[in-house]
């Protein structure tokens, strides 16, 4: 069936705003937080990023799907978005690497989507009113009356307060051997990790032990790690107290730590800082960030709706007693904290994605920075032995 002659569909926001379009992907009902992503490429990486669990993702780029979907580029084992919104889906797939169309992949994984709506109008509305719950209704559900649509949307859980780590994490440990010159074993707490992250860590010489999100400090110590890594992931960091307590045990052991995205927020909370929900978040692959250590401005890939609350300009004392800390990276669009560096213990984090499989690759050096931190820590331990 032509994408331009499909069933009707409607997007309904919690404030009652409605957008009528055409069904795309699976038919039915889906509910979640409606957010927009500004990347012009990399939609397959976006769809398979576990950090988008529970969210209905709108692509601001108008034309989506022309390169189809392939079996080589997924960032995880499935599509994680709760729903998908595009303006103009491609009528044909025109890339030699494609194994199926985007529409077919969405339908296979049961992802309810909508096409043919004014995505710019939705984006402007969210930018003004903030991210909010919404629902996509297609098939028989599209014919429900407006009050019923909104009632269902308002019954959906708010993103604030949700702990979604268990839904996206591995069930049992998985190990990827080092592909670079071996440094040692790395304990990775899987809060929604992406394949590109694992590949980058292995390339730096780590045997990457991906552990379930409910791993204990004893599980971590059992592999005698040279470092610990917290991945990206969905949900509200204030609802992840167990992960914060686990991280404090890691910091107490003085094991080098690196966190990205959700891992940055959890490091902030472990250090005793607060976190808060952004009005509409940062999602896309074109976000400018200042690395205060080098003075370099990087174009970076983001996917986060929460941020750390910390002083931007001067080092400060960790409220939790971990010594001095500084904000290492700052977002240049809105001066949001984009990275933390502990000055008295071996720990740092960034709020964005240095692996960025679809690009940009400006921040990929952070994996080298972590490997250098681990090597320096090992040298210090050997010298003091």
TrEMBL record:
Biological process annotations from GO: 'de novo' pyrimidine nucleobase biosynthetic process; 'de novo' UMP biosynthetic process; glutamine metabolic process; L-arginine biosynthetic process
Carbamoyl-phosphate synthase small subunit N-terminal domain residues: 7-137
Active-site residue list: 261, 353, 355
Keywords on record: Amino-acid biosynthesis, Arginine biosynthesis, ATP-binding, Glutamine amidotransferase, Ligase, Nucleotide-binding, Pyrimidine biosynthesis
Region (CPSase): 1-182
GO-annotated molecular function: ATP binding; carbamoyl-phosphate synthase (glutamine-hydrolyzing) activity
Entry-linked InterPro entries: Anth_synth/Amidotransfase (IPR050472), CarbamoylP_synth_ssu (IPR006274), CarbamoylP_synth_ssu_N (IPR002474), CarbP_synth_ssu_N_sf (IPR036480), Class_I_gatase-like (IPR029062), CPSase_GATase1 (IPR035686), GATASE (IPR017926)
Signal sequence segment: none
Reaction catalyzed: L-glutamine + H2O = L-glutamate + NH4(+); hydrogencarbonate + L-glutamine + 2 ATP + H2O = carbamoyl phosphate + L-glutamate + 2 ADP + phosphate + 2 H(+)
Pathway: Amino-acid biosynthesis; L-arginine biosynthesis; carbamoyl phosphate from bicarbonate: step 1/1; Pyrimidine metabolism; UMP biosynthesis via de novo pathway; (S)-dihydroorotate from bicarbonate: step 1/3
Binding site for L-glutamine: 51, 233, 235, 262, 265, 303, 305-306
Pfam families: CPSase_sm_chain (PF00988), GATase (PF00117)
Entry-linked SMART domains: CPSase_sm_chain
Task of the protein: Small subunit of the glutamine-dependent carbamoyl phosphate synthetase (CPSase). CPSase catalyzes the formation of carbamoyl phosphate from the ammonia moiety of glutamine, carbonate, and phosphate donated by ATP, constituting the first step of 2 biosynthetic pathways, one leading to arginine and/or urea and the other to pyrimidine nucleotides. The small subunit (glutamine amidotransferase) binds and cleaves glutamine to supply the large subunit with the substrate ammonia.
Subunit structure: Composed of two chains; the small (or glutamine) chain promotes the hydrolysis of glutamine to ammonia, which is used by the large (or ammonia) chain to synthesize carbamoyl phosphate. Tetramer of heterodimers (alpha,beta)4.
Name recorded for this polypeptide: Carbamoyl phosphate synthase small chain
Origin species: Microbacterium schleiferi
């Amino acid at each position: 069936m032509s994408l331009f002659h499909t069933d009707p569909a409607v997007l309904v926001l919690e404030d009652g705003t409605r957008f009528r379009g055409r069904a795309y992907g699976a038919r039915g009902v889906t509910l979640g937080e409606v957010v927009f992503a500004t990347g012009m490429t990399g939609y397959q990486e976006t769809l398979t990023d576990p950090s988008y669990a529970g969210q209905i993702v709108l692509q601001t780029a108008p034309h989506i799907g022309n390169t189809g979907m392939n079996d080589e580029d997924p960032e995880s084992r499935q599509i994680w978005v709760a729903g998908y919104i595009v303006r103009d889906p491609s009528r044909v797939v025109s890339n030699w690497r494609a194994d199926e169309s985007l529409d077919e992949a969405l339908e296979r994984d049961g992802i309810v989507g909508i096409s043919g709506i004014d995505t710019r109008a939705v984006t402007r509305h969210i930018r003004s009113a903030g991210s909010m719950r919404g629902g996509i209704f297609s098939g028989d559900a599209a014919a429900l009356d407006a009050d019923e649509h909104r009632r269902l949307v308002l019954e959906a859980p708010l993103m604030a307060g949700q702990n979604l780590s268990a839904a996206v994490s591995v069930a049992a440990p998985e190990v990827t051997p080092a592909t670079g010159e071996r440094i040692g074993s790395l304990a990775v707490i899987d809060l929604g990790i992406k394949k590109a992250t694992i590949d980058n860590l292995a390339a730096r010489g780590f045997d990457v032990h991906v552990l379930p999100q409910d791993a204990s400090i004893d599980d971590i110590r059992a592999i005698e790690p040279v470092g610990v890594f917290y991945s990206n992931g969905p949900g509200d960091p204030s609802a992840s107290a167990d992960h914060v307590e686990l991280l404090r045990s890691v910091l107490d052991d003085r094991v080098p730590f690196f966190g990205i995205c959700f891992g940055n927020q959890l490091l902030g909370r472990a250090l005793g800082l607060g976190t808060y929900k952004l009005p509409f978040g940062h999602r896309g692959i074109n976000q400018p960030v200042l690395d205060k250590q080098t003075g370099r401005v990087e174009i970076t890939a983001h996917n986060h709706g929460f941020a750390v609350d910390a002083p931007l300009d001067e080092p400060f004392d960790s409220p939790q007693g971990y010594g001095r800390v500084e904000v290492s990276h700052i977002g240049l669009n809105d001066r949001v904290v984009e990275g933390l560096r502990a000055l008295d213990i071996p720990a740092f984090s960034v709020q964005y994605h240095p692996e960025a499989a679809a690009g940009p690759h400006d921040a990929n050096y952070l994996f080298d920075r972590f490997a250098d931190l681990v090597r320096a820590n090992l040298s210090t331990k050997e010298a003091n032995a």
